[in-house]
Amino acid sequence: MEKIDKKILDRLQTGLKLEASPFQKIAAELGIEAEELLRRIKKLKKEGYIRRLGGIFRSSRLGYKSTLVALKVEEKNFYQVAEIINQHSGVTHNYRRDHQLNLWFTLSTTSELEQDNFLAQIKALPGVKELYQLPKEKFFKLNVFFKMEEEAGDDHE
Amino acid sequence: MIMNNISDKKFGEIVDELDKKIIKVLETDIPLTLNPYQKIAEDLNIDRAELLTRLQKLKERKILKRISAILHHRDSGYQANGMFVCHFSEQEIDQLGKEISKLEAVSHCYQRQTYQNWPYNFYAMMHAKNKEELEKKVNQLVEKYKIEDYQILYSTEELKKTSMKYFGCGVK
What we know:
Number of domains of chain B: 2
Radius of gyration of chain A: 20 Å
Radius of gyration of chain B: 21 Å
Number of strands of chain B: 5
Number of domains of chain A: 2
Shape of chain B: elongated
CATH class of the largest domain in chain A: Alpha Beta
CATH class of the largest domain in chain B: Alpha Beta
Catalytic activity (chain B): siroheme + 2 H(+) = 12,18-didecarboxysiroheme + 2 CO2
Order of helices and strands of chain B: HHHHEEHEEHE
Low-confidence stretches of chain B: 1-7
Distance between the termini of chain A: 24 Å
Strand content of chain A: 25-35%
Oligomer: heterodimer
Strand content of chain B: 15-25%
Protein name (chain B): siroheme decarboxylase
Number of helices of chain A: 5
Helix content of chain A: 25-40%
Keywords (chain B): Coiled coil, DNA-binding, Lyase
Number of helices of chain B: 6
Largest interface: A-B, 86 and 88 residues
Structural class of chain B: alpha+beta
CATH topology of the largest domain in chain A: Alpha-Beta Plaits
Family (chain B): Belongs to the Ahb/Nir family.
Helix content of chain B: 25-40%
InterPro entries (chain B): AsnC_trans_reg2, HTH-Siroheme_Decarb, NirdL-like_HTH, WH_DNA-bd_sf
Mean pLDDT of chain A: 90
């Protein structure tokens, strides 16, 4: 990856200004033309480095209830269970982990009742041996910044 | 099929119809043009100034965090992603949580509910170029804070990773 692309990825993660021409401003900061910036962003998206360039919202401020959920699922039922979990649009992350608690997902629902109902149904699925609802009790850090430019130092927080 | 009923009434108290439309547009991708907000405003049939005012208000109300890029971090050079879990006492967790969350390798850090069979209350998501590097960082961490009972749960398969879609039905 070219150095300028790394700089672009770093800069785009810190947020666009809420003003008429946000890309023009970033291009000026990086010392390139806005057209070149847009062309490079399109390329970085196409190549899969950028998953999305858009708004990031706080679901809790919109009234959603979120939790992390850990499951122990028998291997023979694993993908069937994962598939049913994934159908819920409030499930944004779902990973297999190398542990006896082998399936971990995040769930956001519009109410605690909806959360409980959904998890009760998951718990009743064939192969689900254990289910832990792990809502956060305290928040220490949420940083989704992935530094691309090694030599840029570590003072991005 | 698992069904979910979502009441629309609840959101009405938090955001109005236009805010909802704006959120629905921004939860996807913004146009890659010189004037992206102009294009979004035209699609929503409002003035660009009104859109920007609304976005500013959503930001002030802490509903909108920011408009930015979300990377595919596996494609961006971070191959090892591990969830570090351990238990800290109520007396020490605030201080240690604050300190550990300062580490660059830690992206998310939370205290979570515990169970008899799952006593870990401290979670730190850690990222490194590879497993060896990640384990080195964990070793430094557990030595420094004298943590004896801990686990690293590596993600070995991504089953779903998407952005939240608001105001929809629970099931696609």
